[in-house]
Amino acid sequence: MKPVSRFASPASLDAVMSRGWRALEEEDLSGWVCRFSSGVTRRANSVLPLFGPPNTNGAIDEVEAAYRRRGLPPVFQISPDSLPQDLDSMLGARGYSLDSPTLMQVLKREDYARAVVGEPDPGIVLQDAPSEAWLKALWESEGPHSPAAQAASVRILGNTPSVYASLVIEGSIHAIARMALVEDLGGIYAVATREESRSRGYGRAVMRALVAEAARRDLAGLWLQVVEGNSIAAGLYASLGFETVSRYHYRQLPA
Q1: How far apart are the C-alpha atoms of 235 and 237, rounded to whole Å?
Q2: Residues in Cβ contact with 172 at an 8 Å cutoff, skipping those fewer than 6 apart
Q3: What's the start-to-end Cα distance of the chain, in Å?
């Protein structure tokens, strides 16, 4: 799949996405970036392997030891630009299971206007920090649920300047989304709608609000990730003009 617009390559997009959801701790092991965040979200607790180590099997051994010291399962985020190129098959041979195939999508600046046709929803609220109500809506929809994990979640969110969108109806939040700000790009995360409020266009409303905010800030482009097979979310993003430019999946060593 061909990269578009400001995103020079899927590899650079891998790195940018990591900055949009930054781990609480990062460690370089033989050129690979190991991310640790107390087990809160797999993205922030996995290896980003964008540089090839001189001894791949030795580097995998180091990774496994580093994650086990923290009580975490060893996990790799694998994209077409992971190095070495046969890393995915090597991990499979070592017993790592494949999980969560995910599409990486982008929206070019010149396509913002297509996504924001019409009047904005009057219930949209934009903030530069997540309110308690925003966080509650996220945790009720996606977790985490323990106090310790929620505290780590707040720290992860605070690691990157962001815009937090809420759709408020009669004083209650019905849908949320977050736009991380990385250089002149924006990353869409945490798009969620309360279960009883789904199929009413609320997710579209918060997405349109963030695209409009990206246009106001003159951001060069937006990115997001959507799990392959999530046809409802993929249909929404396609209708807004997002294009798939790459993909990734995880390789996790079972306990």
Answers
A1: 6
A2: none
A3: 34
The answer to whether 155 touches 191, Cβ cutoff 8 Å, is no
CA pair distance 106, 24, nearest whole angstrom: 26
**Could you give the CA distance from residue 103 to residue 106 in angstroms, rounded to a whole number?**
10
Maximal C-alpha separation, the chain: 59
Place of tokens 């982008």: 106
Provide φ and ψ at 206, rounded to 5°. Answer: -70, -35
On whether the CB atoms of residues 131 and 101 are closer than 8 A, the answer is: no
In 3-state terms, what secondary structure has residue 205?
helix
DSSP 8-state class, residue 29 = E
- Using CA atoms, how far apart are residues 203 and 190, in angstroms rounded to an integer? 11
| pLDDT at 1 (0 to 100) | 37
Mean pLDDT, the chain cut into blocks of 10 residues (255 residues total): 46 87 96 97 96 96 97 97 97 98 97 87 96 97 95 97 97 97 96 89 96 97 96 95 96 92
* Nearest Cα to Cα of residue 76 among 105, 56, 46, 103: 46
Contact 155, 20 (CB under 8 A): no
Calpha distance 76→3 (Å, rounded): 23
The pTM score is 0.93
Side chain identity at 213, as an amino acid letter?
Answer: E
Cα(42)–Cα(35) distance, integer angstroms: 9
Distance CA 127, CA 133 (A): 12
Q: Do 124 and 206 touch, CB atoms closer than 8 A?
A: yes
